[in-house]
Amino acid sequence: MTRLLGGNPAGTAALMTSWLLIEQPGPWPADALENVLAEAFPDGRMEQLRARGLRPLLIRTPGRHQRDQQATRTVFVASGVPGARWLERLVISDLAELAAIDLEAVVDGRPGHGEPVSGPLFLACTHGAKDMCCAVLGRPVAAALAENHPGLSWEVSHVGGDRWAGNLLVVPDGFLHGQLTPAEAVLVAKDALKGQVQLEQLRGRTASPTQWTQYAEIVVRRHAGLRGLDDAVATGERLNADDTRTVKVRCPFGVYEVTVGREAAERAGTSRCAGRVAPTGFHADTPRLLATV
Predict the structure, then answer these.
(1) Which domain of life is it from (predicted)?
(2) Is residue 154 a part of any domain in this protein?
(3) Is the pTM of this model over 0.90?
């Protein structure tokens, strides 16, 4: 619905620099993640790690979700730091074993916790108890990816931005895409397997520190035709007197500067996902190349 209203997902990704992905089969109530984390971590512990960029999420295999008991479950830990991304897999038999993972090291970008995984994971948000459209629009995305990339594709709990469903997070690349159809999601995955970023419907690089820097990176990518994972990385942001931000973005051949402003909503409409929606977004001037290397 947001797409029909002219909403632009660029610059809307939540901050995530590292991940703890926990397999949880069966249906997910709205508080499913909180219930799982409560079995392994003391109160306040995960909030501290979240503040530093760690994002815990539940995952499950796409398809029908029965309330069955598994002898083991898969856990992934990952870091999305540019130039130093990694993804590792563990197998646990009890949720209490999560407490033994050195999450401080994960947040700091230090690997060595499990079996290294070479390919990216494709995580389609299907958390319908959080928002109906995550299930209605996310499940077809998850199914299409599972058919094309079995073992790499998972359903994932709430990643934020229900109005942008179907949402697809690529880990450890750290790019979040929104408003995807199944066919568009397949193209995202195809590019990711080649180490590239699909620019259409890109919400942002999750390790980018602010929405302003996310948007600036996307603007530079589109301006210069940059598709590599680390081809556009914001290195600084300055607040201007008119409330715009001027962002410096490093690319393989130099540094760009781009000024980003906030757009007002042009029109509103009703969405079954998020009630009354008035899409807002950003605008930017043409990137200026400051220096070449």
Answers:
(1) Bacteria
(2) yes
(3) yes
